[in-house]
Amino acid sequence: MLPLKVHKYADDVSRAQVKKLLKHVKLSHKVGAYPAELSGGEQQRVAVARALAHNPSIILADEPTGNLDDYSSDMIWTLLKNANEHLGITVVVVTHRIPTNLGIKYRRFNIEEGVVYEAS
Question: PANTHER family this protein is in (predicted)?
Answer without folding.
Answer: ABC TRANSPORTER ABCH.1, IMPORT ATP-BINDING PROTEIN
